[in-house]
Amino acid sequence: MKSLIYTIFAASVLAAPVVSIAQSDSPVTRTQVRAELKQLELAGYMPASGDEPSYPANIQAAEARIAVQNDAASGYGGAVSGSSASGGGAATHPASAGDMNKLYGGQ
């Protein structure tokens, strides 16, 4: 029975750091919340408008607009429209045996 108690104690001591690491997020300050709310309002979201039926769609649209603005401001954005290609064009005819010998024979 004594060894069971020691085993449980050892397991709890070893598990404690794992639990404490999982909760390392710092709390959000009131200033950060106000700044985020101001940014949402500038993006077109009005929390006091009383438009509750479309609440998730309105805030998600405002957050999407903010994300686009942040991407544009950072200089690293999404894909640019257009196309690109790499590599050479396809050969119109197969290489002859003589050409292959020159290539691989070092001539």
TrEMBL record:
Residues 1-22 form the signal peptide. Residues 76-107 are annotated as: Disordered. It comes from the Bacteria. Keywords: Signal. It holds the Pfam family DUF4148. It comes from Caballeronia humi. Transmembrane segments: none annotated. Residues 76-90 have a biased composition (Gly residues). This is Membrane protein.
